[in-house]
Amino acid sequence: MSAEAATIKTNGHEPSYLEYKGKHTGILGWILSTDHKRIGILYLISLSFFFLVGVTFGFLMRLELLTPGRTIMDAQTYNSIFTLHGVIMIFLFVVPGIPAVFGNFALPLLIGAKDVAFPRINLISWYLYVFGGLLAVVAILLPGGPADTGWTFYIPYSVRTNTNVFFALSAAFVLGFSSILTGLNFVTTVHRMRAKGMSWFKMPLSVWSFYATAWVQVLATPIIGITLLLVIVERWLGVGIFDPALGGDPVLYQHLFWIYSHPAVYIMILPAMGIVSEVIPVFAHRTIFGYKFIAFSSIAIALFGSLVWAHHMFTAGMSDTGQFVFSLLTMLVAIPSAIKVFNWIATLYKGSIELEAPMLFALAFIFLFTIGGLTGVMQGILSIDIQVHDTSFIVAHFHYVMFGGTGFGFFAALHYWFPKMFGRMYNKKLAKFYFWMLFVGFNVLYFPMFVMGWLGMPRRYYDYLPEFQSYHVISTIGSWILVPAILLMAYNMYRSVFKGKVVTEKNVWGGETLDWITDTPPIHENFEQLPVVSTDPYQYKMNEEELIEEEVS
Amino acid sequence: MSSTDQAVESHVHRDDIGSRMGMWLFLFTELLLFGGMFLLYSVYRFEYAEQFHIAAKELNIILGTFNTAVLLTSSLTMALSIVAIQRNQKTLSLLLQIITIFLALFFLVNKFFEWSAKFHHGIYPGSEELLSRSSGEILFFGLYYVMTGLHGIHVIVGMFLIAIMARMTRKDLITADNYVRLENIGLYWHLVDIIWIFLFPLFYLIT
Amino acid sequence: MEKHDYYHEHSHGYGIYILVWLALMALTAITVTIAGMNIGRFTVATALVIASAKAYLVLTIFMHLRSESKAFKVFVFVALIFLIISFILLFADYSFH
Fold first, then answer.
1. Cβ contacts (< 8 Å) between C70 and chain A: which residues?
2. B136: nearest CA in chain A?
3. CA distance to partner chain B, nearest, from residue C63 (Å)
4. What is the pLDDT of residues A374-424, one digit of tens each?
5. What pTM value is reported for the model?
6. Residue numbers of B between 104 and 143 with CB closer than 8 Å to C
7. Which of C79, C85, C93 sits opposite A318 (nearest CB)?
8. Coil, strand or helix: which one is A197?
9. Helix A36-64 to helix A119-138 angle, to the nearest 10 degrees?
10. Any A CB within 8 A of C74 CB
11. Which chains form contacts with chain B, at 3 or more CB pairs under 8 Å?
């Protein structure tokens, strides 16, 4: 949908949503605002906070593993720290991450709507998020200490340990509810609030991925909700459900846990894929290749992703038939992901590529996600999984997917929409600099884990054999590159919100989606007149020129 | 999600279909919440069919059947109250909503007696009597308490919601041309009914 | 999408609801009666079939799914399929233990 096609006229006098004065002013104007853009910013602030807390715990873990035996903390503290790192990163950063921040900020802009379908529910979901986040970290201060179960809360340990598992469990439950509310809001928004003329196949691709994600949020999250609730009930009241001492089946807990938690992986990665699909055509100045393939592969990933949960349990005592079925389905899920990667690469081909920060992050996404994805397919093979299960190979794999994938997707989105959000530009040179630091630090940190995992280094272990030390040292050095890079990024973002170069042009990057025809930053109501869409998204001139060229030759 | 005082703040426009769509999506999460427990039930029943059989004999079929009838009737009165409001029969609609609340209360009272009888026989989570039994029976009663308990909580929430609707109907906030809220609460209430439709045979009728 | 006037979509009369209620009560009576008979391994299957019939009536009539637009029907279908597939896959493991 080109800017010309949309009937928009701005007088430039209306205040932006940042300056807008509603019923409340000051801080109340933010924390009571139902404006999706402000809620997106609220999420950005709270999410960044928890992300930095999670990074700190990760950094401490790496430091502890520098030498075998005790380095800076005892084993019990280490157990709590990796649990907190997991719980915070998964439930407070990666799962809500892109939908909560950028979905909220950009989804209504992308479909030409004034807001989401249920603005007040949207605000409630932010409060639930903050409440859940506090529940997750409050246990640090309480006697008994934070949970030491790992983020998976496996039975029977989680009903027996004396640490404050209750808080971590209820945090995950509350956060799940927040995620459900976001999901049902997005599904309804996409169905009911698209601009006139925007048929399903005229929607930007990130909208497709937000939509698919929202469905998984709505359908899969309740199952983990009830599972965690049952663990709480079992701990408190001794109701026999999972605990083998009461006749229960701990493997069944694992089934129910992964029925959600594997689709959750796609809640995490799908929005990032959407961001990449958005960023690549803009900075390659080319129409996206295979629009429908990318759109449908989002749906296919959401679908297949819901069917493969038990590949987390190949060594937990499943039947052979069960293993076979889940191994096969796991292979299938790689297909739609690969389709996306091929289409992105085909889009780049013959494009005039502009290596701005968002593009760098998007390209890094493709590279790192491919490594993460392919090692995932390896683990889908039963014989290999038995070798690498519960080793640091797995840790490396999911960090390549979740950090290299979702994390980098998040950074891409941040650098892409930042000027639209705040009307200011970050320091571009600095952004490119810390991008390379991040990229190098990331690989130095996580790649050695593939190697030592393959050689037999178990995950979650406090101590290790001396022969693994060289890998651990390299990995820890990686964290010394990665963490400063993250801090630099935080600094750049924080500083630029207040002191960055002012941007007033509507279309900062030359994008062809509706978010770029709004003011920078957008007005409270987004559009003065709701746009009318008549063309497909991503119509770039490059392709027309290319067509003429081909005709001539 | 529409209320005039918030109109400026949240740029709402009224979209009843969207509103119902949101409610249906929420109901799916409820469905899957119970779905997770039905998954548990099915696996444990599969593994301990015989013991489930024995345990189910201790439940009171008559009370269960009676409660099923009560809940089905409350669903009817709920549905009728919407027809009444559509036809602008405010008093009738209000009356039907209040009957629904009382039927829900009735259901809970029955449930209370049923549970107390079990407690009286020493069958409650963690009791010696229960722990001395077979795994299948412990699991059966564990699931029985958790599933009917969670369902009961939903009934209580439903009662409060319908009470709010009755108040709004009385104050003319729910009228013949704006009753989507009543309709949404109705949807919720019918879902609570559907859950019970499945709980009833699975716990009471497998003897 | 949905173009027709919403307020005329759902106006069934009182009659149909009472009929459905009678049917639900009858089905409850039937399922209790059958449970009293000894039909062995079909007990649970019959009970579930009857329960599904009851749920179908509540969904379509009481919850107005019959008169909702197609999107709602697809939604319900998707949610149910998701649940059913979870059952099937779970038993792909458990029934072969």
1. none
2. A247
3. 6
4. 999 999 988 899 899 999 999 999 999 999 999 999 999 999 999 999 999
5. 0.92
6. none
7. C93
8. coil
9. 20
10. no
11. A, C
**A326 and C1 in contact by Cβ < 8 A?**
no
**A531: preceding bond cis by omega (within 30 degrees):** no
The number of angstroms, rounded, from the C-alpha of A415 to the middle of its chain's C-alpha atoms is 15
| CA distance linking residue A497 with residue A55, whole number of Å | 22
Q: How many angstroms separate the most distant Cα atoms in chain A?
A: 79
Q: Are A259 and C86 inside 8 Å of each other by CB?
A: yes
Q: Pick the residue of A211, A219, A309 with the most C CBs within 10 A to test the interface with C by mutation.
A: A219
Tell me, yes or no, if A497 comes closer than 8 A to chain C by beta carbon.
Answer: no
CB A380 within 8 A of CB A304: no
Tokens representing A29 are: 């104007």
CB-neighbour burial class of residue C14 (10 A; exposed 0-12, middle 13-18, buried 19+)? middle
Residues on chain B touching C54 (C-beta within 8 angstroms): 197
Distance separating alpha carbons of residues A356 and A418, to the nearest angstrom: 13
CA separation for the pair B53, B39 (Å, rounded): 18
pLDDT in tens, A154-206: 988 888 888 889 999 999 999 999 999 999 999 999 999 999 999 999 999 99
Phi, psi values for residue A425, rounded to 5°: -105, 140
Residues of A in contact with C69 (CB under 8 A): none
Chain A environment of C97 (Cβ under 8 Å): 319
Distance CA A341, CA A321 (A): 32
Q: Within C1-97, where are the H helices?
A: 14-36, 42-57, 70-94
Residues in chain B closer than 8 A to C43 (CB atoms):
205-206
Closest listed residue to residue A416, CA positions, set A105, A2, A37, A6: A105
- How many CA atoms does the CB half-sphere of A329 hold within 13 Å? 23
Tally B–C CB contacts below 8 A.
116
Q: Measured at the alpha carbon of residue A545, what is the angle toward residues A515 and A365, in degrees to the nearest 5? A: 50
Contacting subunits of A (3+ beta carbon pairs below 8 A): B, C
DSSP letters spanning A400-443: HHIIIIIIHHHHHHHHHHHHHHHSEE--HHHHHHHHHHHHHHHH
Report pLDDT digits (tens) over C36-74.
887 777 888 889 999 999 999 999 999 999 989 999 999
Is the Cβ pair A320, C78 closer than 8 Å?
Answer: no
The span from the CA of C53 to the CA of A268, in Å, is 38
B-chain residue closest to A177, CA distance: B29
- What is each CA distance from B176 to A96, A210, A463, B16, B162, in whole angstroms? 40, 36, 70, 13, 17
Are A319 and C89 a contacting pair at CB < 8 A?
Answer: no
Which class for C54: exposed (0-12), middle (13-18), buried (19 or more C-beta within 10 A)?
buried
